[in-house]
Amino acid sequence: MRDELFGPAVVGVVETGSPAEVAGIRSGDSILDIDGEPMRDLVDYYLLMADDTPHRFRLVRDGKNVETTVDSRASGPGIEMEEPVFGRLLLCDNDCMFCFVDQLPPGLKSSVYIKDDDYRLSFLQGNFITLTNLDEEGLRRILDERLSPLYVSLHATDPGVRARIFGSRGAGRALDNLEALLDGGIEVHAQLVLVRGVNDSGQLDRTLEDLSSAYEGLASIGVVPVGLSRGGRLELPESCGFDRESALRVLDQLERWRSAFGDAGPFAADEFFFLAGQQAPAAEYYRGFSQTENGIGLARIFRDWFTESAWRRYLPRGDLGRVAVVTTPMGNWALEGLGLDETGVRLLVCDNSLFGPHVSVCGLLPGEDVISALSSVDGIERALVPGVALDDDGLFIDGVGLEGVCERSGVMVEAVPVRGDAILSALWQAAEAPDEI
């Protein structure tokens, strides 16, 4: 057992009236152990608290040791930790040819430069891991503690292609780990990031053939195009990306494989449909939307929720010319044909000045681009921006805060969840309370 994986669990929020609050636990406390047991992560914490008996907490508060007893209950002690991992993160030692972190320009939030490859974050938060850095101890823990589901970046099954993509001698070992996980009954969701000319076309067929035979049992297979960014240590040539014609070929190719995998896909990312100039397919295509966090099916969910909400409560009619919806090219694609033009709202589509024109997803919209877009037009008093572009601290990818956008643009800016009902509600709020704009 590696001691550096253990660490204090820092308390973020204590629920009012909870057993933890009654026991005197406060936000900012560092939990050293529970019943004498140190912890590595939330998994350890949940297992230790998985009964209704009192538990002894040993804490550090303002540099002083504190001990208290927490009476557990079915709803839990009422503690939300600041981070899911308490000790050292398991980091990635690959040298992937398209590593997004290496493609990042300097000067962004420090957290985005962390190259984690931690199975615990895969289980707890849905992060994709490569399995190239998973050792025997980690594999054994996953199987013993049933840490399922997991999300795996697979990309290819051909050993030579994998070595080229991952730049790691552990690229082959990952397939052994994948087989062990599937044999052990772990639910695995895989993603294939396609690099044009590397693992698409015939290599994609080989990968899907292997997955349908040698690695049966995957819960889902998502296929996404490689991201091409600029300004970082690593820049891929444009030939590695996809255009309309090549995206259409990928969609046709994946469609031919769908009968082999049933509910597991393979599912094409929204970006492939965007690049191909097609609308997102119907909800039935996604078979339960198992990889929405990977940008697969979000456009369809958004459009269906919007349509259903608009059917119950029609779009506001009238002059919403003082209201702007700030989005990206892909966001604009998802909004097409929904009737926003009938409301009078002004749609501001931002090209990404930070990452370049090939990055068009809403989640990477920089705050500086929002400020620029709002400052370039007159008469805007209220703006709606996609909530997915901000982190829990209200910061865009470039570290600009929502409050800073409001101050510098002179516009009241509201982050709206990327849901059709949420944007419709925000438009109605603007229509019914114009004096508050």
Give a brief outline of the structure.
With 437 residues, the chain is an alpha/beta fold.
3D architecture notes:
- The protein is α/β, with parallel strands linked by helices and 437 residues long.
- 33% of the residues lie in helices and 16% in strands.
- The strands form 3 sheets. It has a 5-stranded antiparallel beta sheet with strand order 4-3-2-1-5. It has a 5-stranded parallel beta sheet with strand order 6-7-8-9-10. A 4-stranded parallel beta sheet has the order 12-11-13-14, sandwiched between helices.
- Helix 8 (201-213) links the parallel strand 8 and strand 9.
- Helix 11 (298-312) packs across helix 15 (420-432) and helix 13 packs parallel to helix 14 (402-409).
- The protein is globular and about 65 Å long.
- It starts with 8 loop residues before the first strand and ends in a 5-residue tail after the last helix.
What fraction strand?
15-25%
Biggest sheet architecture: 5 strands, antiparallel
Roughly what is the average pLDDT, rounded to an integer?
A: 92
Radius of gyration (CA) equals 24 Å
Distance between the termini: 58 Å
Which residue ranges are poorly predicted, with pLDDT under 50 across at least 5 consecutive positions?
none
Tally of DSSP β-strands: 14
Shape: globular
Helix content: 25-40%
Note the total helix count.
Answer: 15
- Write the element-wise H/E pattern from the N-terminal end onward: EHEHEEEHHEHEHHEHEHEHHEHEHEHEH
By secondary-structure content and strand pairing, the structural class works out as alpha/beta
- Across the major sheet, the strand order is 4-3-2-1-5
